[in-house]
Amino acid sequence: MVNQFDEPRLTAELAPAAALLRALKRTSNLTRAAAELGVPQPTASRRLAALGAAVGAPLTVSAGRGIRLTRVGHLLADAAERAVDALEHGVRRAREEIDPESGHVVLGFLHLLGRSLVPGLLRDFRADHPRTRFSLVQGSRRSIVDRLTSGAIDLALVAPPPEEAALEATVLTEQELFLAVPADHRLASRPNVRMSELADEVFVMLEHGYGLRQITDDLCAAAGFTPTVAFEGQESDTVRGLVAAGLGVALLPAFEPHPPSGVVEIPLAPRVTRKIGLAWPADRPLSPAVATFRQFVRRRAGADGSQSSHA
């Protein structure tokens, strides 16, 4: 039976297995987790069994062709994940202290921003910092903010900027939103359209968790109706394709350099915009490379003189 005097010993036994627990939480497959860490599968299995024996409860149970963590396993894996993330961050900071130009930046951003904003920023930054390495993480606003808060990513480009107390953010720019309709739609020739005119329309939307979905839902609610949603997607290009096929209308930023075939973009009245912001952890020091890239992005956007928001 585990007692309070066992905790230092158990912690010492857990430390070597922390990376394995984190990998197992992510993969739910012992073979893949072992391969990810470069250790033989039997060795990984013995480590898990030994740790379970030390704790006094199994850490995994069989689940089809894979395994899943038990409640005890999840508790330890969650702690291991935080610990390994913090250690990796410390290793990066130590390495970059010795050679700042060899740094690594994990950048999260919305799918919509990957078309031109992010590639342009990376191209121009690497012109002066060619040895800085980037890992790019795309996803919904909710998933990106969650990963930023947990420490899995360093910086995030999201819209709107997050308001979590653990994060700081600065507004970089505003982006106008348009109503995208099929080319043969009854509103396609209009110079603008009010949200209240869309109460009877069928909408194509991004899934819940995406900033654009929340903005659309809020605008519809303010106009006095709940939108009829026929399709939900995870990428704006898919949403536009569904609009072009005549399956509904959508609120989206302008497609550059011009709308794709079969889609017409109509300004909203009054004009609707969303703020795009750069966010970072408020309570975690940034590595030299991350701090340098943050300064570059803010300077590029003319945001050096703006106030960072501490939500």
Helix content: 40-55%
Assign the CATH superfamily of the largest domain. Answer: Periplasmic binding protein-like II
Mean pLDDT: 86
Largest sheet: 8 strands, mixed
Q: What is the CA–CA distance across the termini?
A: 44 Å
From the spread of the alpha carbons, the general shape counts as globular
Please report which band the strand proportion falls in: under 5%, 5-15%, 15-25%, 25-35%, 35-45% or over 45%: 15-25%
H and E string: HHHEEHEHEHEEEHEHEEEHE
Family: Belongs to the LysR transcriptional regulatory family.
Domain HTH lysR-type: 21-70
Protein name: Transcriptional regulator
GO molecular function: DNA binding; DNA-binding transcription factor activity
Overview of the structural elements:
It is a single chain. It contains nine helices and twelve strands. Mean pLDDT is 86; it is low at 1-5 and 303-311. The chain has three domains: 4-90, Arc Repressor Mutant, subunit A, CATH 1.10.10.10; 100-172 and 275-310, 3-Layer(aba) Sandwich (D-Maltodextrin-Binding Protein, domain 2), CATH 3.40.190.10; 174-273, D-Maltodextrin-Binding Protein, domain 2 (3-Layer(aba) Sandwich), CATH 3.40.190.10. The longest helix has 28 residues, at 71-98. The strands form three sheets. Strands 3, 4, 5, 6, 9, 10, 11 and 12 form an eight-stranded mixed sheet that branches. The chain has helices at 7-27, 30-37, 41-55, 71-98, 117-128, 141-150, 211-222, 236-244, 288-300, and strands spanning 60-63, 66-69, 104-110, 133-139, 155-158, 167-182, 202-206, 228-233, 250-253, 263-267, 273-281, 309-310. It is an alpha/beta fold and 311 residues long. Helix 1 packs across helix 4 (71-98) and helix 2 (30-37) packs across helix 3 (41-55).
